[in-house]
Amino acid sequence: MVVELISVGTELLLGNIVNTNTQYLAEQCALLGLTMYYQVTVGDNKDRLKDTIQTALDRSDIVILTGGLGPTEDDITKETCAEVMGFPLVEDSHTRQCIENYFKNNIYKEIPNNNWKQTLVPEGATVLDNHNGTAPGLIMEKDGKHVIILPGPPSELKPMFHEQVTPYLAKLQPDVIRSQMVKICGHGESQVEDKLLDIIDGQTNPTIATYAKTAEVHLRVTAKADTEEEANALIEPVVNEIKHRFGEDVYTTEEDETLEKSVVRLLKKYNLTVTTAESCTGGLIAGRIVNVPGASEVFREGFVTYANKAKRKTLDVKKTTLENYGAVSKQTAKEMAAGGVFAADADTCIAVTGIAGPDADGAKPVGLVYIACYMKDSIKVEEYHFKGSREQIREQTVIRALDLLRRQVLNNYGT
Questions:
Q1: Domain co-membership, 336 together with 187
Q2: Which of 200, 217, 252 is the last residue of a domain?
Q3: In CATH, what number is assigned to the domain containing residue 106?
Q4: Would the pLDDT of 202 be above 90?
Q5: Last residue of a domain, one of 118, 148, 172
Q6: What is the mean pLDDT of residues 75-101?
Q7: Predicted model pTM
Q8: Which of 170, 182, 197, 390 has its CA 20 to 30 A from that of 124?
Q9: Sign of the alpha-carbon torsion through 26, 28, 29, 31
Q10: What does residue 126 show for φ and ψ, rounded to 5 degrees?
Q11: How far from 154 is each of 157, 161, 194, CA to CA, in Å?
């Protein structure tokens, strides 16, 4: 079946809000095996919205609209959809009770009158409860067409789609669609594609889709079959072949596991503690680690030693090292990693020092970064020459640092 996305809101056209809903919905629809040809953004204008909806209905089986379900006058999505499809609006007593409960639970003294506008729904529509706001979602069906309207805030849209829309759409798709993610670190998208070109060129079912991330590439292997078991059987040999070709550069095959989650999982597995010693990243590595639930079991503390004086005082980097080689050097990175381990009494330390820009440091270029990992009384140092803005260089450094830590754990403790 063909699905089309319509994002409603003048603020989207003006760039005031980043439209993350479209990315999320497109990915979820792909997982459900739905075909998508169009994604449209339209402002809060009734005539243009009517034309957009009618065009979508003429060329697609399923139309998903987001935004414009609020209580204000410029929220016109529901009303315009109902008009295009020929459904009158009627009050839904269940929605009215939900709105009353929402305001009561949030300790509001009174309910603004304009919120009652949200109790009106197209006659015969399926109402989707909003457990995180006041605007209900809606599903309308007519002449083999399916229109789904969702609230704009991602905190409302995502749980509603996952809990109520996904089961509905799954029933419309006769085939079973299953996917598995393979996440690779240390390779660019073109490198990954080149290594898998024979599989990609010959793919029919399952298929492989590549997604380029910062210093990572994610592969989604998707199969279509009559049963879940048959789909999984098609996926398994392809995933195994990818893992064989990329080895330890594959850090997970779990959809929700990030690189930092993978690192924390490994540290827990081998009962290791870690500390961080950061210069150019200013605490970003530590921040990624402590974002993982349960990181307190493995993370000791993080040192941000931006100035040379801090490197000497906190991490015991030698003055002569800084004078002879500079703060951005292999030698300084090694001493930072060693100093971090002993300062925090940890099993391992990941240390970074580099030039994120925008200005170079004498003869050393912007993007030059050294990453060191101390483990088992030895230190592994890697040199990188990153490209991009200051923010991009720092983000690439964080990913490479976490990946070095992960690989060193595997190399020293893995079986």
A1: no
A2: 252
A3: 3.40.980.10
A4: no
A5: 172
A6: 92
A7: 0.78
A8: 170
A9: positive
A10: -85, 125
A11: 5, 10, 36
